[in-house]
Design a protein that fits this description.
mainly alpha; 59% helix; globular
């Protein structure tokens, strides 16, 4: 099944009604919309991205929080979308959104390591869409912000671990990667944050 914006939006709106939501649906919409904005700008810079696909991958990255405990949302989301018949790339985003390299131990805060995730991450080749969602997940809480603001938000809630410093460095490299593709600071696409830099 090829997901559509109408179908995925309906999924998220249904999830919004669950009492334990705690804002992840609004976060997912923010990530998807931010990814779509950057994808559109990349196309204007000469690239050829599917804007709806970029948006939907952002919308779906945390869908596992709808079907089980938050601590297992990556693998739960992957299997949930597989059962729905979604293409592999849409399933993959549920796991890959938390890993900006192929090192499954390079994370910002301590997590419970799962052998399925370790194998998946180590053997995965990131697509441009996944890299974009990686970045946008680290640019959004309930709205778009700078990566530094988001990193402070995550660390203040979840703490640090031995790989936090290296992870932060990789996040800044990822942001620079997209800046270079665009030829300018991508924050300029978002006046609400660019004006306050």
């Amino acid at each position: 099944m090829i997901p559509t914006k109408v179908f995925v939006t309906h999924m998220l709106e249904q999830a919004r009604t669950v009492p334990r939501n705690l804002g992840w649906v609004q976060h997912s919409f923010a990530v998807g919309d931010t990814a779509g904005t950057i994808a559109n700008a990349l196309n204007k810079a000469g690239y050829d991205l599917d804007i709806e696909k970029a948006t939907l991958l952002g919308y779906l990255h945390d869908i596992g929080k709808m079907v089980g405990p938050y601590t297992a949302h990556m693998q739960n989301g992957y299997h949930y979308l597989k059962e729905l018949g979604f293409p592999e790339e849409y399933c993959d985003i549920c796991i890959i959104h938390s890993y900006i390299t192929n090192d499954p131990f390079l994370v910002i805060s301590e997590i419970v390591y799962d052998e399925e995730i370790i194998q998946h991450v180590q053997n995965h080749q990131h697509t441009i869409y996944e890299r974009l969602v990686n970045l946008c997940d680290l640019m959004c809480d309930l709205q778009t912000m700078t990566v530094d603001q988001r990193l402070i938000d995550v660390i203040s809630r979840h703490g640090t671990c031995k790989s936090t410093q290296q992870h932060v460095q990789e996040v800044h490299k990822l942001k620079q990667y997209f800046d270079e593709m665009l030829g300018y600071n991508l924050y300029s696409l978002f006046p609400s944050i660019y004006e306050n830099l």
